[in-house]
Amino acid sequence: MPIVATGFFQPMTTSVSPEAMMLSIAAVERDTGIGKDTLRVWERRYGFPVPARDAFGERSYPSEQVEKLRVIRRLMDQGHRPGRIVAQPVAALLTLSQGALGQTPTPIAPPEHLQSYLDVIKSHDSEALQNQLTQALTREGLSDFVTDLVAPLAVSVGDAWVRGELAIFEEHLFTECVIRVMRLGIANCAKSSKMGLPKVLLTTFPQESHGLGILMVEALLVEQGCACLSLGTQTPVRDIAHAALAHRVDVVALSFSSLMKTNDVLDGLTELRQHLPTTVTVWAGGQAAALKRRKLADVEVLRGLADVAVQVKRWRSAALKLKP
Prior knowledge:
- A 5-stranded parallel sheet has the order 5-4-6-7-8, sandwiched between helices.
- It is of the alpha/beta class.
- The radius of gyration is 21 Å and the shape is globular.
- It starts with 21 loop residues before the first strand and ends with a helix.
- β7, α13 (290-293) and β8 form a beta-alpha-beta unit.
- The longest helix has 25 residues, at 168-192.
- The chain has 3 domains: 18-97, Multidrug-efflux Transporter Regulator, Chain: A, Domain 2, CATH 1.10.1660; 112-186, Methionine synthase domain (Methyltransferase, Methionine Synthase (B12-binding Domains), Chain A, domain 1), CATH 1.10.1240.10; 194-322, Cobalamin-binding domain (Rossmann fold).
- The chain contains 14 helices and 8 strands.
- Mean pLDDT is 84; it is low at 1-19 and 100-106.
């Protein structure tokens, strides 16, 4: 997934309007978290989305419809029902997302120390953005870089997208640039780590394609001296269990974005626990509603990035008590 060529934010000599960019139904499902069957039902029931057909007769969606679908998904995560929002114009949805239906959304100014990063993202200068991020990483250290810069910046970028100030490609390319810088920081930090315990396997379930959250956790774990094994995103549950046993890990850490359905989270965690011995701890973190609604049996829920160090300390303390 990381883009290795430099300057991918640089202006192109020929421009393509967002309206001309079409996404397949599979790409829309991956991007929005809304299933293919649901998209087809909405098309019949609500008259939206309105896909075109490609040369093979398959559905394809213009980018402005995908942007609206992403707003709809965020509103659904907040408790709104599809029947009340799918047919509404995007301007009304953006107003609703600000919690004030019928009023013009009030722009929320990002923290001052993040504004320069947002300006660079909008300027499409990836080299400058990467330099800024690299300098911040060097200056602040990996842990503070993640908690004080990357995490709030990701929120600000998401808010800017909701307000229509950033396009999908700008949000995606920002994420790729951050991932590239963070991987370098993780690699450098891992070289100096000598503790190595607990050994943590990191990944996401098949329905979760967002990898920035689990990468931030990995960065904090590495700085805590943990040995980390990342499987990337979208790993089948049984494969997670098999990998955990094959590599003899102490902890399986999973990340869930707000797009994850409650049943997918709960059923997946239940299945995973059934395939793991009790000696392997499971950590789950992220914005999924399922993690906030109830206590999960035999799963430690990370309530935020600050909880990573707490859980590591707790695991090490318990491990010391078990030593003869």
